[in-house]
Amino acid sequence: MSNSRRIRELREDHDLTQRQLAARLGITQPQYFRYEQGYRDLPTDLLIALADIYDTSTDYLLGRTDDPAPPKSRAASTT
After folding, report:
1. Which helix (DSSP H) or strand (DSSP E) does residue 57 occupy?
2. At residue 72, what are phi and psi to the nearest 5 degrees?
3. What digits encode the pLDDT tens for the residues 51-71?
4. Using CA atoms, how far apart are residues 34 and 30, in angstroms rounded to an integer?
């Protein structure tokens, strides 16, 4: 799954509009639209902000893992 598709699904799962999420990120809705559609790559600061908003890892947002749990949750579950 592409990261643009993943961030769209997370936004929809959290019942947020592009405009609402863009406001939380401090960017415009058209700018967020470009990231969500894959027209532009997400800058690192926005990637981290999205991971914080959705309480997930940047690896999950980037499609490097299918486990949405943030790293500290995974580490705690193994001990």
Report:
1. none
2. -65, -30
3. 999 999 999 999 999 888 887
4. 6
Ordered alpha helix ranges (H), 1-79: 3-13, 18-25, 29-36, 44-54, 58-61, 71-77
The pTM assigned to this predicted structure is 0.84
Which value, in Å, is the radius of gyration of the alpha carbons in the chain? Answer: 13
Tokens of 65: 């893992």
Indicate the range of 29-33, 66-70, 75-79 predicted with least confidence: 75-79
**Superfamily of domain 3-67 in the CATH hierarchy:** lambda repressor-like DNA-binding domains (1.10.260.40)
CA distance 21 to 2: 19
Between CA 68 and CA 73 the distance in angstroms is 10
